[in-house]
Amino acid sequence: MVAFxxxxxxxxxxxxxxxxxxxxxxxxxxxxxxxxxxxxxxxVPESLVDPAGHGPRVWFQQVPEAKAAKNRWHxxxxxxxxxxxxxxxxxxxxxxxxxxLVKAGATVLRINDEPDMGFYATAMQDPEGNEFDVV
Length: 135
Fold this sequence. Notes:
Layout: H1 2-9, E1 12-13, H2 23-29, E2 47-49, E3 58-59, E4 75-77, H3 87-103, E5 107-114, E6 119-125, E7 131-134
Parallel strand pairs: 4-7
Antiparallel strand pairs: 1-2, 2-3, 5-6, 6-7
């Protein structure tokens, strides 16, 4: 999920805290018991940060079960530029982002094309099935 959402948000994986080669090494140094760390935990980045330092940190908690119900959150990736931008330009921007995210593992659920309302968006799912929109 870290790799996908880094691509989607333009973020970067957060490096382990100072002096630690991996997140696992960090958590071990903090005293987290080995049995509380699932297999592979800490060997790969588990959070994202905005490279410009403006946006919030995003942490992905690993859980053993797959998504089974409706999202608890929903993100809209606003890449079109808003209603001050011509609809055809917004559509091109949304489509380019959708194409990039499909290559990264997302799935298109539906396209919301309402030219009479000046609206265009694509509903998608990330690789774990969490829904989001590209607007």
